Amino acid sequence: MTASRTASRTASPAASRYDTALGWGWGRGRPLASTTRLVLYALVLLVFCGPLLAVLTGAFDRTPDPSQMSLIPRHLTLDNFEIAGERGLWTYLRNSLVITGGALLLQVGVTVFAAYALARHRFRGQALALMVILATMMLPEEVIAIPLSLVLGDLPGLGVSLRGTLLGMILPMGGWGFSIFVLSEFMKEIPVELEEAARVDGAGELRIFGQIILPLCKPGLGVVVIFGFNMIWDQYLLPLIVASSPDQYPLTVGLQLMRSVPEVGVGALLAGALVALVPSVLVYLAFQRTFLSGLTTGAVKG
Amino acid sequence: MTAGTGPSTTRGSSAATGLGPTHSDPGPPPPRPGSVTSVPSARRVRLRRAVLPWLFLSPALLLFLYFKYLPMAKGINLSFYKVQPFLGDQWVGLDNYTRILDEESFRRAFGHTVVYAVAQTAGAILVGFVLALLLEGRARTLWFVRSAAFLPVVAAVAVVAEVWRLLYFPGQEGMLNSLLSWFGSDAQRFLDDPDQALGWVIVVGIWKNAPYDMMIVLAGLASIDRQLYESAALDGAGLVRRLRHVTLPALRPVVTILLTLAAIRGMRVFTEVYILTGGGPAGSTDVLMTRIYDLGFRANDLGFASACSVVLFLLTLVLTGGVTWYRRRKELS
């Protein structure tokens, strides 16, 4: 898809009317069309960003009414954060950061090794290994929620309970079939000649892995890290079934405990929502290109 | 990632200091056909080649074993038992499964799940398609609007659901209600209205997923040969006919598969529904996952809840398998 896209881009000499499916006129001489478009864009922004902007203003706004949200702040204040803090916001944030940090490190490490084995080796049982890994995509937390909570309560063969621990929310996120698959697709595209040349020069397995394959699949690593972050930050059901008390909740689950606070109405919830929203938005804005490339790779190949 | 930061030491650090030809040391040499030492070391190399990949795979496989496959097996096993915490589990055969068929609340939840999955997916692609048409192009304004409109996709589901719960506040002064009142509409009860609640839940799903579909459609649009539009226009085809005969056929292959898979994924919806309505009012938005959650974690009916999970799993498995098989067959012909 990328190839044909660049091809068609270079083929079209200048911006023409038929550059887009709609083929709308744009710019000088067509004031009506331009205005219509601008109005439509504003509408799109209002619909898709409005609710999120309302979170931003609401978080800093003193709202006497327990139900009101608005796009324009009336009375700026930090009270909401203070009260949300009393309700455990910073504990939830800390939990979220620990879970996301730990699970992401683990997940990326696990993914990198597994993808390397699948993409750069031929070995007996490879098809089976691939199938075992891909099949886990059919087993998300939802489908196995009930037995998973039992298994976490008593790890078979180890006699350890992970219930009520952050580790119990981290370990199940360690393996992710999707990211292993995507990264191995990226790794497959690295030419074999590079690897062979290094092997002839006496480089060992781990050196080839660490100094040739990994640096060359940086875009793939970017996709894995960013999608992994999003996936882990988004977790809801897993922490819900693992936690044994609210002080183990991550932000996503903890929000419900800030729903209505008599002093600030919805302010505390919105403050919490903002805190939960900011990292996802920042990661997206910072790595937008990687994000979108991963989206299309994942979509077309997965 | 941590493994890539420095030269590894597993095979003697002396050999791993540079890319130059430094293998004069007695460490295991690379396979060299014809050299004197090749007979024993070739075997070792071959052995290593067979074992090493499994070593690399082992963390992933171990985690999957513990947190995917063992739970799955346990779930299937439990589904044949009546689970009683202190009395001991009692084998009931297929009773839990026949109970699924009998239980009215489960049948309703199944219906809601299908409606949710289909309506949310269809709505999201429709809105996403319109957005993509509207926002296609290379201008910087367009890039900005696209990036901003994509934000619902990256926001955590729980945050989205909590925010929409507020927007849907059923009183006069709720945000959406005050917006509606500008257009002269009466105040809606939104999620409190058993007849409408599922619809409003679906709206949230569409809002969150439409920008994702927009990006996929945009990627598809970019791959369409611009000359097709031009020649179609020269042949007198208007906008609608160009869309129907040039744009849609080009998008179809990628989009249909995506949609089917998204709809299947929609069958597993939980967080949105759990936060927005918890399945209520009066079970009018109950989906399979909220039923299973209630049965398993509130009513502690683990055997029955496991049977429901197995059904949900088989459903998604068969549907996904069907789609994959259909796609393969189509690719072959």
UniProtKB/TrEMBL annotation, chain A:
Subcellular locations according to the entry: Cell membrane
Residue ranges annotated for the ABC transmembrane type-1 domain, each copy included: 93-287
Domain of life per record: Bacteria
Major location category of this protein: membrane
PROSITE patterns: ABC_TM1
Record keyword Nucleus present: no
Topology term for the membrane: Multi-pass membrane protein
Matches recorded under InterPro entries: MetI-like, MetI-like_sf
One Pfam family from the record: BPD_transp_1
Stated family: Belongs to the binding-protein-dependent transport system permease family.
Protein name per Swiss-Prot or TrEMBL: Carbohydrate ABC transporter permease
Automatic annotation (TrEMBL), chain B:
Location in or out of the cell: Cell membrane
Region (Disordered): 1-40
Biased composition (Polar residues): 1-16
Regions that span the bilayer: 51-69, 114-135, 147-167, 197-224, 245-264, 304-326
GO cellular component annotations of the record: plasma membrane
Domain ABC transmembrane type-1, residue spans: 110-323
Keyword ATP-binding: no
Any one biological process term the GO annotation gives: transmembrane transport
Keyword Transmembrane attributed: yes
Protein name: Sugar ABC transporter permease
